[in-house]
Amino acid sequence: MSVDHYENFPVASVLLPKRLRRPIEAIYRFARGADDIADEGEAGDAQRLQALAVYGAELERIERGQRPADPAFNELAEVIGEWHLPLQLFRDLLAAFAQDVVKKRYADEAELLDYCRRSANPVGRLLVHLADRASDENLHRSDCICTALQLINFWQDIAIDWEKNRVYLPQSDLARFGIDEAQIAEQRWSAGWAALLDFQTERARRLLLEGAPLVHQLPGRMGWEIRLTVQGGLRILEKIRRVRGDVFRHRPLLGTSDWLLMSGRALFM
């Protein structure tokens, strides 16, 4: 399982409690490895789905209390058992990655949010379980944050996803704002495009703010980790708004000055 993308995941953060780093790294390796199967390399769709099915078979072995066939899953099995993590959350991730292989368009918001429920929300829920704070309210707030972050990533990477023949902007929203896919292909900005991105970023902002009270329910350093995560999402949204949605020429990224600003804002959440 690949471990090449730590820069995008909180496992490297000094804010995380040391005791949680091992289980979080195990979760990350599973998610990153499966995601790479769906996204990377030159394999065909059938090969990708078959490889993801191997991951699913390993989860079945873990659920039955059997030793994984692939030793690379041994640590994950130990972590799931030690921390009593729900296996369904790992299955949801696999379902989302398999969907990415075969589904390239989303009819409406409901379809897109269902994808986020499986592609992003399980990671947040696993972290909440690790913190032993898995109340219904906390899980809902975690879902809001994770869905928002997934949406923000989509709006940040519209051009990158187009190269993979993926459009996460709901087809109903494209029609509502008078945008066709040729405009994405041409990376052509317009007032209608700006209005579409304003609409999408506001949806994500509301979700982030709805989930933000979770930071007060998570203990110590994990709470601070999530504060910075929320502030990072809000900062990316600000950058998208500042360029009126022109993510083709101004893909928003976080720099040193942004981290300083986010750290200051995190103090007052």
UniProtKB/TrEMBL annotation:
Which class of enzymes does this protein belong to?
transferase
Is Transferase tagged as a keyword? yes
One biological process term from GO is: terpenoid biosynthetic process
Q: What Enzyme Commission number does this protein have?
A: 2.5.1.21
| Superkingdom | Bacteria
Any signal peptide, and if so, which residues? none
Q: Which UniProt keywords apply?
A: Transferase
**Annotated TM spans:** none
Keyword field contains Transferase: yes
Q: What GO molecular function annotations does the UniProt record carry, in alphabetical order?
A: geranylgeranyl diphosphate synthase activity; squalene synthase [NAD(P)H] activity
Identify one Pfam family in the record: SQS_PSY
Q: Which PANTHER family match?
A: BIFUNCTIONAL LYCOPENE CYCLASE/PHYTOENE SYNTHASE (PTHR31480)
Protein name (record): Squalene synthase HpnC
Q: Which organism is it from?
A: Candidatus Propionivibrio dominans
What's the source species' lineage? Bacteria, Pseudomonadati, Pseudomonadota, Betaproteobacteria, Rhodocyclales
Its gene name is hpnC
